[in-house]
Amino acid sequence: MPAVKPGNAVMIELGKYFFFDTRLSGDWGVACATCHDPQKGWGDGQALSTGYPSMEYFRNSPTVLNAKYRQRFLWDGRLDGSDAGTLVRDMLTETHTMNMDSRLMQERLQQVPEYDALWKKWRKDDINGMRVFNVIGEFIRSLETINAPFDKFAKGDSAAISAEAKAGYDLFKGKAGCVTCHNGPIGSDGNLYNTGVPEHPEVLKNPLRTITMLRHYATSGMPNYMNFRTDVGAYAITKKTPDIGKFQTAQLRDLKYTAPYMHNGTLATLDDVVAFYNQGGGKGSVLKPLNLSAPEQKSLVAFLLTLSGDPINVKDPGQPDMQVRTFGKN
Amino acid sequence: MKTTLAIAMVAALLSASALAADKYPPLGPLPPAPIPKDNPQSADKIALGKQLFWDNRLSGDGSMPCVSCHLPGLGWGDGGQISRGYPGTKHWRNSQTVINSAYYNKLFWEGSVTSLEGQAPSAAEGGVAGNGDPSVMEMRLRFIPEYVASFNKVFGSPWPRMNDAYRAIASYERTVISETSKVPFDRYMKGDKKALNASQLAGMKLFNGKAGCIQCHNTPLASDQKFYDTGLPDFPGFKDDPLYQVTHRWEHYQKGVDEPRYRNADMDYGLFYVTKNPKDIGKFRTPSLREVKYTAPYMHNGVFKTLQEVVDFYDQGGGKGSNKTALLRPLKLTAQDKKDLVAFMEALSMTEPLIHEDPKLPGDYQPLPAPVK
Lengths: 330, 373
What we know:
Chain A has helices spanning 9-20, 32-35, 84-93, 102-110, 113-122, 129-141, 149-154, 163-173, 202-205, 207-219, 235-238, 270-278, 294-305, and strands at 72-73, 79-80, 192-193, 247-248. Chain A is mainly alpha-helical. In chain B, helix 1 crosses helix 2 and helix 4 packs across helix 7.
């Protein structure tokens, strides 16, 4: 992976606190780290994410690792990858994730002297609005895959990956054609495709999940939203029929820690993912069958695992308490 | 005309109490509640509104239905000095009773909305109250078949709509009205001269006269629906509780005060938030005195636990405030006067509390039926 200018250290430190602080959700029920748990590959380990108390979400919680290399954010690719702050704002203020009034959040954070002191190391103004989102964005952007065997291999250490993985790499670039979409430093071209990933049955079976899905359609301004029963992906944003069922190419970094896979977690293992693509994807897929042998499929998985690095463990720094301020002097 | 005026003047000279009583719209038996033309009552709509009032699914995290801060058993308020507020927050004002709210032309302590239809969304969606997102609350209703059927029957729409939910809640609230046959004062005014005892009658005379309560607490509602600074003491929580401070600053920002006032805010500005006129700082709407027997604690910030304390406060001529009304001055009431006044105020309440039983709520969310055209 290419070297990137390090972020602002104070922002990253503050962002780490905020990332783990439940007071950034409406009822203190969840923090960013609830659905992006460092111990679970910075996702939540479930097929479908849980979301805000009393709700349940209809897509998988993706890892936040390598955010700074993302071209787009969210499974339907609706946000620009260069703007992590806006992604954070969406997650904090959306009713089905953290349901936070952003001004109330600002007033809460100002009530914590440790946060105020850290902020003052960076800026003279109050803890405020979009900058809080940017601070968390900066923290997320500081998290990246390290010591991946493939990166050592690419830098010339030919012993860093096994012969099987090397064979897998050849397939990846060649016969299996993965590299067509999975390219660049994190193995994603950031584009949208329909590969026919099956619907997760739970989305229709569990009304709480259908509620968040149709509500997402309604607030995205999708016409006739009450009559959709599938995850339409990018279509909810573009309203262009060919975009129905299109999702962003997932990154291939740290897959070792981020099962289950796909936008709705329907594939439990990397073996399943490779088998899925070997058959040319699912219904409506733009892909063709690959006719890979069993050993070929195994070697592809071996290669994919070399793109994972050391576990990125960041400890919850704890939640410093709110304190009384001098009334009338803010 | 001249004769009437002359008689009135003579009466005024004869009695200070007559003067006060004549100058202001008198108390009287409560008439039927006004019903807006654009939201007529119907039995089905009222029944639906009652369910919605109780249904926790109309809040951000399913913990704050309307009834959580407006409990029938606590005078349709929440019994606390300050309303409990959404989890993770504290509110900043006293939860008002729903009883007879149908008669107000403005709702909330600073009169920020003009109808019950407008009050319901502010409460259900407000960040320190219900914190519900209307789009998700609406979608929840659409996954509850009983609601889909009821909304269709009442409003004719294929799917429940949040605006209609608020209309139904308002309709229900218009049925939360004092039963006048159980209100001693109303019975007295309708001819039952035994309905008030001697102390209550003495209290009524003070109310209309020497104590001057009628200056603001007039009309059958016992509220002129106007705004006054009575110089109430501040709620101490703003000084010593971080969560109240959070809400206090947030409200200032939400209500659009200028930056210096936001930074230096050291009180609840009341009506000022609506008008932005410095002369309105510290003014709050006169609350009705009906059902006060059941709605302790009192005032916009719940500073008084008993009616006795309220009467003591006015007996002193109120408190200190930059815009304090000239209508308040020390009253020099005797201990007996105060007792009589409290007795009379209690006669404006029903002899037993107005209770509505919990409605039977629709069942759990169900999977959506097949798409409809």
